[in-house]
């Protein structure tokens, strides 16, 4: 009995993580682009707009070739990431409204 070389598994995991990283980057760019245009937006509306843009293929210039399925969990994860990085803010009196 012989196992496949370990390098094959590492390359597969690297490709999967690279695809997930690209997806997260595209979603973060969409969130940022939408909030830049709107200045402030309710978090539910933001999630809806990002998912709608993904379904319609409106990912931005140069990204039309990408096609992937995104869910509200993916978008909320990106929103939390951008909040932690300081790119987005919550309003003090209305924490469900996000600002760029």
Automatic annotation (TrEMBL):
SUPFAM superfamilies: Winged helix' DNA-binding domain. InterPro entries: Cullin, Cullin_neddylation_domain, WH-like_DNA-bd_sf, WH_DNA-bd_sf. Residues 19-96 form the Cullin neddylation domain. Coiled coil: none annotated. Transmembrane segments: none annotated. This is CUL9 protein. It comes from Anseranas semipalmata (Magpie goose).
């Amino acid at each position: 009995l012989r196992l496949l070389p370990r390098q094959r598994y590492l390359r597969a995991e690297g490709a999967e993580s690279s695809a997930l990283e690209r997806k997260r980057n595209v979603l973060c760019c969409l969130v940022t682009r939408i909030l830049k245009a709107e200045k402030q937006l309710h978090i539910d509306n933001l999630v809806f707009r990002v998912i709608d843009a993904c379904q319609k293929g409106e990912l931005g210039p140069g990204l039309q070739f990408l096609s992937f399925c995104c869910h509200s969990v993916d978008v909320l994860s990106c929103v939390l990431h951008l909040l932690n990085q300081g790119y987005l803010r919550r309003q003090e009196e209305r924490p469900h409204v996000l600002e760029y």
